[in-house]
Amino acid sequence: MITGGDSHVVARDHFHLFADPQEDHPLNVIAALIIGLSSGALYALVGVGLTLMSVLTRVINFSLIAFGVFGAYLSIHAIPLFGSLPLDTAAVLAVVVAVVVAAVLSGLLGWIEATWLSEATATARSAVTVASLLMLISFSFILFGSQPQPLRPLLIGPAFVAGEIAVTKVGVAMLVAAIVVALATWVVVRKTPIGIRLRAISDRQTAAELLGVNVKSLQVGVWVVMGAVMGLCVSIIGNTAAADATSMITLVIPGAAAALVGAFKSLPLTIIGGLLVGASQGVLTAFPSIVILRNWVPIVVIVLFLLWNQRKEVWDVAR
């Protein structure tokens, strides 16, 4: 991941390696690559959420993962309220709290955007989500501090074992979730009346309003659903990605890198981008002397793709 002090925190969280992590041999490189793919699945899921928001609401919602993290970590404080209930029941109710909080917060920001910024540019609307992101980071630090929180993942243990590598259920679940969200969105957008309205809003919002489409309700609905999805996903992974809420929120950086690979338009490319970012970080963990460079992988990807997207303008000026 992009956070954490131990150079092998990703290996510890998502996989178990029987080989010595200090030995740079081919097995470790392959194992580290697979480790990175597990992290990349989480990045891909965040990237899918950012891409969907961009396509359906004309907003790059940088605070999306923050809503999920805030809801999930806040649910920890709700667990004592369910003290008389069985542990499993209390865990389920805590997840419900996380999902509801994330959905409400996301829906509130969506309502603000749809009410007061409906005619604003995509850049201005996205800038508001950056302000929301910073606010949630501040609140998370005040409420939860910088110490590890007991956010227990819903899925524990390996999904399968291949040789000396045990692939965890969390890693598999995040990849499956990213693919399912992408496929479900495609079906809804292409095959349902609601999807037709969402496409109309995305392409021609003013025309859709003139045709009687309830633009505000649909847009807020997208915000609510995506917030709930993030709340559920963060509850599933627990604090395997990062020990504290503030660090977990920074997953928006590799998520944005993944979405940028898909130009905030293509869901398949976004998933591939997330896996590539994670795989690159994973490979670097096999080399302790340069492992610190893994934190820079998402930034490098973002810079390279921004430069690539501007290549025509730059080359025209050069000519």
Radius of gyration, in angstroms, nearest whole number: 20 Å
Silhouette: globular
Counting helices, strands and paired strands, the structural category is mainly alpha
Strand coverage percent? under 5%
Task: Enumerate the spans where pLDDT stays under 50 for 5 or more consecutive residues.
Answer: 1-23
Distance between the termini: 41 Å
Total of helices:
14
The succession of helices and strands, N to C, reads HEHHHHEEHHHHHHHHH
What helical percentage do the residues reach?
55-70%
Average of pLDDT: 83
Secondary structure layout plus pairing:
Blueprint: H1 9-14, E1 15-17, H2 26-57, H3 64-76, H4 87-116, H5 122-144, E2 158-162, E3 165-168, H6 169-191, H7 193-203, H8 205-210, H9 215-237, H10 245-249, H11 252-261, H12 267-284, H13 297-309, H14 311-318
Describe this structure in words.
By secondary structure, the chain is mainly alpha-helical. It has one domain. The protein contains 14 helices and three strands. The chain has a three-stranded antiparallel beta sheet with strand order 1-3-2. A hairpin with a 2-residue loop joins strand 2 (158-162) and strand 3 (165-168). The longest helix has 32 residues, at 26-57. The termini are far apart. The model is unreliable at 1-23 (pLDDT under 50).
